């Protein structure tokens, strides 16, 4: 079934000096799709995420979001960044702001919402990630899993069209991984468009529409989870899977 494309990369190339970190990447993510990106360390997964959000510039190729080319700079770029929420491995919360303030900050500052309206909406989002009772706490008073759920609520507060997750559970103790994955599973079920770099293959099997395998800056496979896990085509993917499964 053809879905409306939300994120499109066509022939994207990026270099860090001599390192060709993204090599002719073609990738389309449809509205409501969940795409899991896997691959060995250093293969370019984080760079890909940052490129989609234009936190990194590219040297050639095209990136479109919801049918429009990515703006180079200025207000249009800020708006686009707000359209694609990003959740990192290290939660990146503001340490001196409460949980509620962390979630409300960007809607007020970037979207120009009224503080009381932003706070009302933030409380709804904190409810969605199971943290209403922690709204007035500071990040340091929360567990890693709770902090990451705040980071997800904060990303959602901008009403993004898509969410990018870069190894959202890699910094967490094992017993906290599932509470974060559960929030992501629910977002996926509710139709959010999600690109996630993760080693959580259970999540990939259960929630991904597609698995994208990267190696050495190239997008080597783009398949359904079923196909990828049972019948990887490339030697690189076979080798990768034999090490992690
Ligand atoms: P992954 O997320 O798959 O581990 P990255 O996208 O972080 O891979 O990195 C891909 C390659 O680019 C690595 O070789 C890394 O060392 C290099 N790299 C990442 N960021 C930079 C940077 N800012 N400057 C130079 N090289 C970088
Ligand atoms: Mg990375």
Automatic annotation (TrEMBL):
Matching Pfam families: ABC_tran
Compartments where located: Cell membrane
Domain of life: Bacteria
Membrane topology: Peripheral membrane protein
Keywords, alphabetical: Amino-acid transport, ATP-binding, Cell membrane, Membrane, Nucleotide-binding, Transport
UniProt GO molecular function: ATP binding
Domain named ABC transporter: residues: 7-241
Main location: membrane
Protein family: Belongs to the ABC transporter superfamily.
Name of this chain's protein: Amino acid ABC transporter ATP-binding protein
Organism annotation: Streptomyces lannensis
């Amino acid at each position: 079934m053809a879905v409306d494309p939300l994120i499109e990369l066509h022939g994207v190339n990026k270099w860090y000096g001599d390192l060709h970190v993204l090599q002719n990447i073609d990738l389309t993510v449809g509205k409501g799709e969940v795409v899991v990106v896997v691959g060995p360390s250093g293969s370019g997964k984080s760079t890909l995420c940052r490129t989609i959000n234009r936190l990194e510039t590219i040297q050639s190729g095209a990136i479109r979001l919801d049918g429009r080319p990515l703006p180079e700079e200025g207000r249009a770029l800020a708006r686009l960044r707000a359209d694609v929420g990003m959740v990192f491995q290290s939660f990146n919360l503001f340490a001196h702001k409460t949980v509620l303030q962390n979630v409300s900050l960007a809607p007020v500052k970037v979207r120009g919402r009224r503080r009381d309206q932003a706070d009302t909406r933030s409380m709804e989002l904190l409810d969605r990630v199971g943290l209403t009772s922690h709204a007035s706490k500071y990040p340091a008073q929360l567990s890693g899993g709770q902090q990451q759920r705040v980071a997800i609520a904060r990303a959602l507060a901008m009403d993004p069209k898509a969410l990018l997750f870069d190894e959202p559970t890699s910094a967490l103790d094992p017993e906290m991984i599932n509470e974060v994955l559960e929030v992501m599973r629910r977002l996926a079920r509710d139709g959010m468009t999600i690109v996630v770099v993760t080693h959580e293959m259970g999540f990939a099997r259960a929630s991904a529409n597609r698995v994208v395998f990267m190696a050495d800056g190239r997008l080597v496979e783009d398949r359904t989870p079923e196909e990828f896990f049972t019948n990887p085509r490339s030697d690189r993917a076979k080798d990768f899977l034999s090490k992690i499964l």
